[in-house]
Write a structure and sequence with these properties.
Two copies of one chain form a homodimer.
Chain A (H helix, E strand, L loop, with lengths): L2 H4 L2 H4 L5 H7 L7 E2 L12 H14 L1 H5 L8 H14 L8 E4 L2 H12 L5 E6 L3 H8 L4 E8 L2 E2 L1 H13 L7 E3 L13 H13 L4 E4 L15 H4 L5 E6 L11 E4 L2 H15 L4 H12 L2 H27 L5 E3 L6 E5 L6 H10 L2 E2 L1 E2 L12 E5 L5 H21 L1
Parallel strand pairs in A: 1-12, 3-4, 3-6, 6-7, 7-8
Antiparallel strand pairs in A: 2-9, 4-5, 8-9, 10-11, 11-14, 13-14
Helix pairs in contact in A: 4-13, 6-13, 7-8, 7-12, 14-16
């Protein structure tokens, strides 16, 4: 039997990514990988996790180990709703559904909205997991250039108008306004206003993916797109994978009741429910204020790591290499000289025991070959410094040879 | 904005199921629901779960709370592979991927194989979660009648030939050979041989969904389709949701490396990974032999529950009501007189504080209106008996009035 002949069209083009295969090679002793977007596990509140687990086993073991509802654990939903209400979101329980990590939210967006050949607007670059999820439903990504204030209104306008003229109205506009992955760019207030006004005028559904919002190291807190529009025609995605622990596999979607209802129907066919056990751990952390305690610690520590990485970049990188210095989030986006190819560089970097994600992973059409995303949250300050040093020395070698 | 206009075609037709909405009404005091397919939580090994959790926090906390690989926790995979090898499966690590409950396996089947309007062959009736998952990718289900030996070879042959003549080669044949949900039918050895021979001759990919296999209360253990074909062109699905605890959200797929590779790529875009925490709990239970201890207990208890429900059915049901008495699994499939409609009956049953799943939920085209699936694993023996009594008395009332 030729399995290849049986594959769904949308799936056939999906390949094991070359970059992912390269990053698999990083599981060797001495390697310092700046490739992932992982939290630093040294701060995981293991003792409190133990206490929370014991409390759940004492009071609620059966519900934790049995099937749960598709919508999610009600205590967790209530805690999240309360938290968002305090931030200015006008939402109630029916506006929030729990998902199995925010990657599932991206998959469900595809399931609910994307027909084969539908167009989706996104930032250029954008999150590789979103690109993968939308492509898996046959969506076509139209990536819109950004400047230091965020996605460009002019570029958005011209892309949207061109699509409209060819009769291809995009399904939605996918944005990561806060400390964008991978660019690190924080969308300015005036840009938020402009983009929302344009979306409103043109009846464009906006998806606001916001994993890094809580990691604002400095500058005033800008309102989320969801708050600014009072939730109208906005889908907001949140997750505990960066601010808490990815092993729990918990994210959530906030939207109108009508849209949440569609996500619940889609999730029912996808995985029935998210683990009630991990949801109850998260709920208890919110109830006890332990999540905020933890967040305060990691936010402070990640800020120090970012500052130290800026120092290392200045100290070691050749002049021709530049980068964006983010006010929050988990990443630096590095620009190599145009003659360099970051995927080729990664192969050599792995030999030198340092890894990163080449920029092309973040563009739907393989642009960005001379960029790299490096993460500063996962490794220690010392290892981040060594990694930057190794990378800089490799870049100097490369620059000398090409 | 009209959200309805934005929906994907495959998703637009998905509605909140009437039956699911009715079953939501069963969360009231005094209700006895035979509707779900839930394990009895009184046997959940909570003390050992606590011990396992403590051990994980002591020795492996960081890996349990961090991102895991898409393929799944290697200890859990190794334990499962060893278990299947002992049963006669010729597999290695690369033949098994962990999924977030076997509903995710059904969703991934859709993602990997189903184009809009592809045909899928299944038993009639079949598992409602599989029907929902395949429909959500635009698949068209062709349900093949069963007899007491399983899916009918004659009916399969005539359906397949008819499809082939119209140029619509089915993507796969979806079967639940062991104590089928909802019918309870256990496919006989000779039928297994016949169906596999037919599938082999015609190059038909077979999906063997096997959640109830371990619940064989009597009779000899029949080989699985996967064993019988040495794994060739068979996809085998397993889960801990029935034999262990659904709250862990753990299932798995066994297939050729080539097929597993496709599932891994698809899962990557779907939820990145299944919770390492819940996987490590399950792995430890397998390693320590605690899973087998637990399985022995529930298998014994569920057999008693089945026996007691047979008694109650004989004692209370009117003569015109018949049922299949299964040798394993978790369900009875009840046949009402043809003039009765089980969905209508459910509305009245809920008032009488008893619930079940109407048969039409298990047929892709709303057949089976005069059937009901009742579960015997979840409620206590006493409550099962009361539920059957309530249901029988309602049926007598209905039969007298129509």
């Amino acid at each position: 039997m030729k399995i290849n002949d049986l594959l769904a069209e949308n799936h056939r083009s999906m390949q094991r990514s070359e970059i992912r295969e390269l990053l698999k090679l990083t599981a060797v002793p001495g390697m310092i990988s700046l490739g992932g977007g992982l939290p630093d596990p040294q701060y995981f509140p293991v003792e409190r996790i133990r206490v929370a687990f014991e409390e759940i086993m004492e009071t609620d073991a059966v519900a934790a180990l049995q099937y749960g509802t598709t919508e999610g654990d009600n205590v967790l939903r209530e805690e999240l709703v309360r938290r968002y209400q305090a931030l200015g979101f006008r939402i109630k329980l029916e506006n929030l559904v729990i998902v199995s990590g925010s990657q599932q939210a991206l998959d469900l967006l595809g399931k609910v909205f994307i027909n084969k050949c539908d167009t989706i607007l996104c930032e250029s670059p954008s999150y590789l997991g979103a690109i993968g999820a939308f492509l898996s439903y046959g969506g076509e990504l139209i990536d819109i250039p950004m400047d230091s204030d965020g996605i460009s209104l002019e570029e958005l306008t011209s892309s949207y108008e061109a699509l409209k003229q060819s009769g291809r109205i995009p399904k939605f506009l996918y944005l990561i306004p806060d400390y964008q992955n991978p660019s690190g760019i924080h969308m300015s207030l005036s840009r938020r206003q402009q983009i929302l006004a344009y979306a409103y005028e043109n009846d464009i559904l906006v998806v606001e993916d916001s994993p890094y919002r809580e990691f604002n190291f400095e500058g005033e807190r800008l309102p989320s797109l969801y708050e600014m529009r009072g939730g109208k025609d906005i889908i907001h995605l949140g997750t505990f994978s960066k601010t808490f622990m990815p092993g729990l596999r918990i994210g959530w979607i906030i939207a109108s009741e009508e849209i949440i209802d569609r996500f619940v129907i889609a999730k029912q066919n996808t995985d029935l429910c998210t683990s009630p056990l991990t949801q109850k751990i998260a709920a208890l952390f919110l109830q006890k204020g332990w999540f905020d305690d933890y967040l305060e610690i990691v936010k402070r520590e990640y800020k120090v790591k970012r500052d130290e990485m800026i120092k290392a970049l200045h100290e070691f990188m050749p002049e021709e290499v530049t980068w964006f210095e983010p006010n929050g989030g988990l990443f630096f986006f590095i620009n190599f000289p145009e003659r360099m190819n970051a995927t080729e560089l990664l192969k050599k970097a792995i030999e030198k025991k340092v890894a990163f994600v080449p920029g092309s992973a973040f563009f739907p059409f393989g642009k960005g070959y001379n960029h790299a995303r490096i993460n500063f949250s996962y490794s220690s300050i010392e290892n981040n410094r060594i990694a930057v040093q190794r990378l800089a020395s490799l870049i100097r070698e490369e620059m000398a040879s090409i």
